[in-house]
Amino acid sequence: MKPKFDNRVFWKEANEPASGGLWSDPVPASPASMQAEFRAPRRRARVHEEYVAPLPVSRSPEERSNFRAELINQHVLVCHPDHIQKIYNQGYFGKGVLSRARPDHSISDQWERESPPVTSSSGAWPLPCSSWLSVYLQAFFLVYSLGCLSVYLNQEPLSIIQLWREFRSMRPDFVSSFAAYQHCRSRGWVPKGGGGAKYGADLMLYRKGPPFYHASYSVVIERVDDAFKGSALRPFSWRSLAALSRITSNVSKELMLCYIIFPADLSDVELDSPVCLSRLKVQEVIVSRWVSTKERAEQDDI
Asked: Where is each tRNA intron endonuclease catalytic domain found (predicted)?
């Protein structure tokens, strides 16, 4: 399935103040309705594996998978080796506890032989080091959207509502983050976290998966109301937005602001259940730097 965005727009200073001054808020209240130019994803020079499937599910009920994970110390961990391989090979879900990306049991086996038990601030970590870590967004997508994962706490399975409440308590922005994650997955992209330290983004979007293509988009998630107003999860100044845009451009990616629009009448009671996701809307805005020398060269070519 070819990745796509149905409502991508190009962010442009279309509503510049008549006085010629700058907005106090660098993100416009309403995005300009100008279609963004699609850039093809950059394929990696060397690919060492084959593409298996976009998701770890089957159309046949007889072949339906039921993976298991444990919620331990605010981490969702998949321990069974077969489950680890399937959720990674089919959709690239999860991140290695010890290995960099793909599960590498040779590393974990060596760690188990040579290292003492893993401990944390809340006590010992009672599981083998060959486990596989799946972040909240990926875990809840496998549980709620695909129905192929069960998460256990103290050997008891958690219901969807219980898991939703657990994740909300652990991560205040979970509702808006999951809405953005599910939206990108539904468009055929593979969203991966962990780009915040390198690129200052919440998600990185890949075609097919990280082994095949470089990330195409750095995504920043923002929560707004119907009027595109609200308390920003990450308040931007002109300088910070320009810096983030330059960093994204220097690594050959595009910066996307993903607005999760909450209706004004959405209550806290509704937010206590994943049913509220049906009332949320998503608007993507592509932020592009305007380079005068590049524009001048293009005009000369014309």
From this structure: 174-260
Catalytic member of 206, 213, 217, 259? 206
pTM for this structure?
0.80
Concatenated DSSP letters of the chain:
-----TT-EEE--TT--TTS---SSSS-SS----BPPP-PPPBPS---S----SSS--SSGGG---EEEEEETTEEEE--HHHHHHHHHTT---EESSSSSS--HHHHHHHHHHSPPPEETTEE--S-TT-EEE-HHHHHIIIIIS--EEEEETTEEPPHHHHHHHHHHH-TTHHHHHHHHHHHHHTTEEEE---HHHHS-SEEEEES-TTTB---EEEEEEEE-TTS-S--SS---HHHHHHHHHHHHHTT-EEEEEEEE--TT--HHHHTSGGGGGG-EEEEEEE----HHHHHHHHHH-
Catalytic residue list contains 206: yes
How confident is residue 122, by pLDDT bands cut at 50, 70 and 90? Answer: very low
